[in-house]
Design a protein that fits this description.
Elements (H helix, E strand, L loop, with lengths): L10 H16 L5 H10 L6 H14 L21 H6 L28
Helix pairs in contact: 1-2, 1-3, 2-3
Length: about 120
């Protein structure tokens, strides 16, 4: 599903988004009360059952850190960098081997060059 605006979300989808983001904000000690507090502080509401569900999932997984990739754990290329440093590094031109024409061989064993 492509999301172009938060206004396109249903109420239950908004609540799931608020709960998910609240888990990330709370971090290590995820409780239903902490999730509700973060949701209310952001101007949103979170039902007790949704807060309890998300806190129990995060606790069963061992904390919110399990859902976030650590720095340097892979996943995508770098990008960016210093363009001046990249310009300073010169690559040696690769020498290409000169290859003569390969002999033409009929794959089907015929010498007449006819239809295949």
């Amino acid at each position: 599903m492509v999301l172009s605006s938060l206004t396109d979300l249903t109420d239950s989808q908004k609540e799931e988004l608020v709960a998910s983001l609240s888990v990330l904000v709370v971090g290590s000690d995820v409780t239903a009360e902490a999730l509700s507090a973060v949701a209310e502080a952001s101007g949103n509401s979170l039902s007790g059952s949704m807060a309890a569900l998300f806190s129990s999932v995060a606790a069963a997984a061992g904390g919110a850190e399990k859902f976030c990739a650590a720095p340097g754990s892979g996943g995508g290329g770098g990008g960016g960098g210093d363009a001046a440093a990249a310009a300073a590094v010169e690559e040696e031109p690769e020498e290409e081997e000169e290859v003569g024409d390969a002999p033409v061989v009929d794959m089907f064993g015929g010498d007449d060059g006819g239809d295949y």
